[in-house]
Amino acid sequence: MKRNRLIICRQWVARMASIIETVVALVVLLAILVAGVRVLFEVKDLVLAPDVDEAFTTFLSSAFNVVIGIEFVKMLAKHSPGSAIEVLLFAIARQMVVEHTSPVENLVSILAILLIFVIRKYLFVPAFGAHLPGEDAFGTSSLMAAREQALRDADAEEED
Fold it and tell me: Could you tell me which residues come within 8 angstroms of residue 93 by beta carbon, excluding any fewer than 6 positions away?
């Protein structure tokens, strides 16, 4: 009976976390839309700017931020290692392109990208939290779940 409550509590916590995660994704998506409109206005500023280099850097920074935001929302929606890796790649690329980093920082960024690609090639798993066939999301096997259901049924009969 106590184990049943624990499973129900875990399922409730997982649902609440999923709802909060979805709300955060929607808020970020709204912010991306606002930032996307701002990027369009920065194109106009780019044309009219006396210092084109500074305006272009600002435009690139804003555009990369929108792209990183989109990838972040996709990561929240998909729950896959691939989407997390894409967010990291875009963030590192943004740092290299927009921030005009030193040669040492560029080398570290390139090595980080190389490491991400090596991890993706050799250590990549299809999905985080994937469970084996015959198991539920909590790692409970079908046989265990059937046993727990039988125990719950027996407890319900005793209460009647």
Answer: 64, 113
